[in-house]
Structures are given as structure tokens and as C-alpha cells.
Backbone:
């Protein structure tokens, strides 16, 4: 399959910060991810890689490769640049495991990869992590205007349970609080397994089709 999901490491942080700055108006500082990875025992973070990517492959990535690496990032990690090994990271996500709850803290995708199933792959993977951590519920906040994300969450059994007023600092937009039912319940396990299988089949089929088109054009 074209995409792989890996545990986020310190070496991934510069690339993660670049993607977040493209995805959000109020990104976390690099130091926040350093603390999450090194100090927060509740935190679980993942990255998604395009294993076919040999940068620079897209206009956005070409521009990123041309830019000097920000000094603020150099001060927070041993390496002084985004290495070629991390340039194929195209998305990331994370959660906090708190007793019986897995709370999704962030999901971000490089703009060039939106609408390709990458966001769903991350959500599905986070729910899988919640199972491994023996959580019973998965929760998150989402902008009230982000109907695309809300539809994806509802697909995986999330339902609105509350509202956080003026939750987002950039424009003071409200956030919906959404939560799954008990993910250990037999019905939810079956639903998740079916959705996961459909997603993997879709991504594998799209990867095979792209490979075939590339071969035909060679």
C-alpha cells in the first residue's frame, strides 16, 4: 500500500511542524511535540508516510525544500534540517490515553493529500491505538464549521456530546465535543473492523491503479 503508519519520533518533529503550519493557523511550537514525545506518558503520536514519495514531488513540497529551515526549530532538536527520510511524512495525528478514554488531540494532513483517505487512515489507526491501550471511549473536539471532519467522525460512530464555546483561539469559533460509544462493545468492534477493512481495500486498490497507470505510461 502507498501509505504507512509509524510512531512519531523526535526526528519527525520538524516535518510535523511544517505540515501543521500548512494545515492550521495556530500550530503548536516544536517544543510542545518534544514534550509530548519525551515526557507525556499519556501521549501516543503517529505519522503517515507516502512511501512512494521521492521529494520534491509536488509544487508545495518543492517550495518547502527551497526554504531555509526556521531558526526556532533548530534550537529544539539535534538535527539542523528536515531530512530526506522525513520529507515523505504527509500527515500526523495523536491522542492522550486517560484511564478509559482516548482523547484525540490533533489530526493534520498536508494540503496535497486531502481527500485521498489519509485522514480516515489516521482516525482508524488512532482507534486501533485506543484498543491497544484498553480504552473504552474515544473523544475529540472539532470546529462547528468543519462538516467534512464531522461526517468522517460520525462514520466511525462519534456523536456530539457537548459544545465548547469560543474554543479556538484564532477566531473564537465554537467546538463540538464528540465521542464514540463503548468501543469494546461487540457491535462497535464489528463496525470498526468492517470500516477498517473497506478502507484498506480502497487504499490498496488505488495504489494498484496508480501503479498500473504509471506502468502504462512508461
Residues:
Amino acid at each position: 500500500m502507498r501509505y504507512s503508519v509509524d510512531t512519531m519520533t523526535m526526528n519527525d518533529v520538524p516535518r510535523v511542524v511544517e505540515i501543521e503550519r500548512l494545515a492550521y493557523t495556530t500550530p503548536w511550537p516544536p517544543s510542545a511535540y518534544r514534550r509530548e514525545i519525551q515526557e507525556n506518558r499519556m501521549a501516543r503520536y503517529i505519522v503517515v508516510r507516502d512511501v512512494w514519495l521521492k521529494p520534491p514531488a509536488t509544487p508545495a513540497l518543492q517550495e518547502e525544500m527551497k526554504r531555509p529551515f526556521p531558526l526556532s526549530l533548530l534550537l529544539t532538536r539535534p538535527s539542523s534540517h528536515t531530512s530526506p527520510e522525513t520529507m515523505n511524512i504527509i500527515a500526523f495525528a495523536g491522542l492522550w490515553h486517560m484511564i478509559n478514554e482516548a482523547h484525540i488531540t490533533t489530526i493534520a494532513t498536508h494540503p496535497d493529500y486531502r481527500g485521498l483517505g489519509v485522514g480516515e487512515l489516521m482516525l482508524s489507526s488512532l482507534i486501533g491505538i485506543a484498543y491497544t491501550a484498553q480504552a473504552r471511549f474515544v473523544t475529540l473536539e472539532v470546529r462547528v464549521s468543519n462538516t467534512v471532519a464531522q461526517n468522517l467522525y460520525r462514520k466511525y460512530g462519534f456523536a456530539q456530546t457537548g459544545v465548547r464555546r469560543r474554543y479556538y483561539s484564532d477566531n473564537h469559533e465554537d467546538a463540538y465535543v464528540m465521542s464514540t460509544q463503548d468501543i469494546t462493545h461487540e457491535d462497535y468492534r464489528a463496525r470498526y473492523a468492517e470500516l477498517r477493512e473497506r478502507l484498506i481495500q480502497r487504499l490498496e486498490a488505488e495504489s494498484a491503479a496508480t501503479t498500473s497507470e504509471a506502468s502504462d505510461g512508461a
About this structure: Helices lie at 13-23, 30-38, 59-66, 71-74, 118-132, 147-155, 186-217. Confidence is low (pLDDT under 50) at residues 67-80. The longest strand covers residues 89-98. The chain has one domain: 3-211.
